[in-house]
Design goal:
12 helices, 5-stranded antiparallel sheet
Length: about 270
């Protein structure tokens, strides 16, 4: 089986971006001879991208809160000096995690994450409507987008801090590897939540009570971290793939989630 690799950067998860991702996936899955399972694996990729979007917003909001606090604390420092200080903190994961946990207690970051995601939803409606009508954004569209102040502000910050989502799909050695990397680190607390939710889901599934897990986890007040991965595990189990072997999450200076899909396992279905 020939190797094949496709890489792209996701700026906004619009319908156009989804179509491009689907077509890239289709090329890989066709080459592997398992294109009939693209929609199932695509649902997993969709969850991973949404998680990356959410994590990047949360990271930015924490960094912004830290900047405000340090600016108040060190009034003799310029904004640029404070930014440099924060950049140094970001290089030390333990230090950043410690400060972030203090910020999370002081400020309702989860509420702001929900707010920006709601504003992003309105932005995507505008972009997707223009895309489906095969036209550019109108002046009314642009004015509507300008009103989404938190979303617009954080989009500028994403560029400023060069925070991106990178997607890689590769066919190699009888496996399809899918990597979603967000160039900001996930908090240790959120990583532990992912592990805990996956373990909780596995327990429910082993006891034949899978549906109860999702009923008991409807509340996503803590930004929903972990629930998306439980959904992914559910999709993979239904395909006869062991999520323990197929899903890997690594977070140091950035966060990478990898799906390793065995082609032969899909062909046996």
């Amino acid at each position: 089986m020939n190797s094949l690799r496709i890489t792209g950067i996701i700026r906004h998860y619009t319908r156009r971006a989804r179509d491009q991702i689907y077509n890239a996936g289709l090329a890989i899955f066709k080459a592997a001879g398992v294109e009939q399972y693209l929609d199932d694996i695509g649902a997993c990729v969709d969850e991973l991208i949404k998680n990356a979007v959410k994590a990047n917003y949360k990271h930015l909001l924490i960094v912004e809160a830290l900047q405000r606090q340090f600016q108040l604390q060190y009034k003799d420092k310029t904004g640029k000096q404070v930014q440099e200080y924060i950049k140094d903190i970001l290089k030390d994961k333990i230090h950043f995690d410690t400060l972030a946990s203090i910020v999370l207690k002081k400020e309702n970051i989860a509420q702001k994450v929900r707010e920006v995601l709601n504003q992003e939803g309105l932005f995507l409606l505008i972009k997707n409507k223009a895309f489906s009508e095969n036209r550019s954004l109108t002046s009314d569209d642009l004015q509507s987008i300008e009103k989404l102040k938190l979303f617009v502000e954080l989009q500028q910050k994403l560029k400023q801090y060069d925070i991106r989502i990178i997607l890689k799909i590769e066919l190699r050695d009888n496996y399809i590897y899918i990597e979603i990397t967000n160039t900001a680190p996930i908090l240790s607390h959120d990583l532990q939540r992912i592990y805990a939710k996956r373990e909780e889901y596995r327990r429910y599934k082993d006891e034949g009570r899978e549906y109860e897990f999702f009923i008991n986890n409807i509340d996503t007040s803590d930004s929903g971290f972990g629930l998306g991965y439980a959904k992914i595990d559910s999709y993979l189990y239904n395909l006869g793939i062991d999520p323990e072997k197929a899903v890997t999450v690594i977070s140091i200076n950035n966060t990478t989630a990898m799906l390793s899909i065995p082609v032969e396992a899909l062909k046996k279905l």
